[in-house]
Amino acid sequence: MDTxxxxxxxxxxxxxxxxxxxxxQAVVRRDVxxxxxxxxxxxxxxxxxxxxxxxRAAKRENVTFYETGDLAAAAGYRPCKRCQPDAPSQQQTRSxxxxxxxxxIELSASAPSLAQLxxxxxxxxxxxxxxxxxxxxxxxxxxxxxxxxxxxAASLQSAPSVTEALYDAGFNSAGRFYEAAxxxxxxxxGSYRKGGAGEHIRHAVVPCSLGxxxxxxxxxxxxxxxxxxxxxxxxxxxxxxxxQAQFEPADAGFQRWIARVLDYIExxxxxxxxxxxxxxxxxxxxxxxxLQAIPAGETSTYxxxxxxxxxxxxxxxxxxxxxxxxxxxxxPCHRAVRADGSLAGYRWGLARKAELLKRERKK
Length: 363
Known about the structure:
Shape: flat
CATH class of the largest domain: Mainly Alpha
Strand content: 5-15%
Strand order of the largest sheet: 3-1-2-4
Helix content: 40-55%
Order of helices and strands: HEEEHEHHHHHHHEEEHEHHEHHEH
CATH architecture of the largest domain: Orthogonal Bundle
CATH topology of the largest domain: Arc Repressor Mutant, subunit A
C-alpha cells in the first residue's frame, strides 16, 4: 500500500496524491473503519494518531501518513495518549469478540442464545446484536442457520438419509428445512444428496482473450461463468459440482448466451443482462445486487458497498461475498477494490481483474 513520502528515508513509502487525499478525508471524518490501516503524524505536536482520534483537527500541511506506528516512531514521533494508536482499535476489539462468538456457535450442538453470547462479550443483547451484524454481515441467528446449511451439505453426502442428515446438522424441523433448502443448497436436498441428480445443465468451455471461460446454466439461468488457464480444469470443476447432473448439449438459445458473454468480456458495455441461477445467503445476494449496480468503467470500495447495503462496518463480509461469487462479469465483483483503490481478492486472478477494469475504462 502506498503512503505519503517523508524523511527520514524508509520511514514512509512513495506518495500517491489520491491515496493521501483519501487518508486525509478519513482523518477529517474521524473514520473508525480506517483505524489499523494507517496512522497520521502531526509535525507541530510531534505525535502520531489513529484516523479516528478525537483530538483537535490538525492542519493538512502539518500531516504525514505512515503505514504503521513503528514507522512513525522511527521518524521521531510519539504515540498520542488520547487515542493510543498502538492499542487495538474499537473495530479490532469488536472483530475479536464476534470471532469468539462465531466459534461458540460453531462448537455448540444447538445455537447459544443471544443473551448468552452478549453476556460473554460484556454487552447488552441489543448492542451485541448490532455489533455482530455490523462485523459478520448477518445476525447470530442467521449465522447459525448458514452454519447448519453447510453442515447439512456435508452430511447429505454421508448420512443414511436426508432426514438423519438435517437432524445431525441441528435442524429441529424437517418442514422448515425442506422449505428453505432450495435457497440454501441450490436444489432439493434429495438432488443435492445425489450429486445434482435431476438437474439439467448446459455448458460450454471456450477460449477467450483471458484464457478459457466456462459458461454453465440450469434451466433457470446461468449458474457459472469462470476463468482458468486450463479447459480441462473448468470441465472438471463443473462436473465435480454436479457429479450426477444431466449435462445437455448447448442449444441455439444457450449458444447466444455464450456469444453475449464472450462479447462482454472483449468489449464490456452496460450490463450483461442474462437470467441467473445463483444461490447465497440474504447478505450475499444484497452484495451481489449492489455489485450489479456499479456502472461499467467505475469501481467501489468494499466499505462503500457495505454502506450502500446499509451495513457500513461489514466491509470484510462484503469482500467474502465477492469471493463467493461464481458468475464472473454478470455479477461484476472485479469492480470492488480496496479503500486505497488497489486491487485484491479476485478468485480468477488479479491480472484478469486489472484487464477487465482496463477494458471497461476504454469504453
